[in-house]
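Lab notebook, bench 4. The sequencing result for the construct came back, and we need a structural model before the next group meeting so we can plan mutations. Quick request posted to the team channel:

Model the 3D structure of this chain.
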Amino acid sequence: MRFNQLKLLLEHFVSCREAMMALYRRLELNSDAERVRMLLAYLQHQERENAEHLQDFISLAKPELLETWTDIRVEKDLLDYMAKLSQPADISSDDVSNLALELSEQSLSLLRLAKDELTMLGARQFLANLIEHQEKRQQQMVHATHRLDDI
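Done. Here's the predicted structure in C-alpha cell form:
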C-alpha cells in the first residue's frame, strides 16, 4: 500500500525499536565476551526506553496529526533483516556499536523522509521534534559505547 497515515509510520518505527531490542537480546545470549554482553544489555535498555517514549509521544499527539496521510510506503525490510541477522559469538564491542548505529540510522531514515514529504506544518514540526529527540538518544548511545571502551 502506497499511502499511509502518519500513525502507521510511527507504529512501524516503534516496531523497529522493539525489533532492535529483541536482536540485542539474542546477540547478548550468544556472545562470549562480558564487555559485549554489558553493551548489548545497555542497548536493550535504550531501545526499551525509546519504544516507551515513542508510544508516549504518539499517545500525546493530536489525532489530526496522526491521521495525516503520507505518500511514504512502510517497508518491512528492516524488520525482516533484524529478525534474520545473526552474529558470531566473538563479536566485538566495535562491531556491536557499528551495528546499533547502522540500525538506528536506517530506522530514522523513514521518519526523515516522512518529515521532508509532509506539507502540513504541524506534522512536520511534530516529526522534527521526534527526530531531534531520537538523534540525541543516538548520540548518548555512541558516547556511552565509547565510555565502555575506556573502562
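The chain is about 80% helix and 5% strand.
Will bring this to the meeting.
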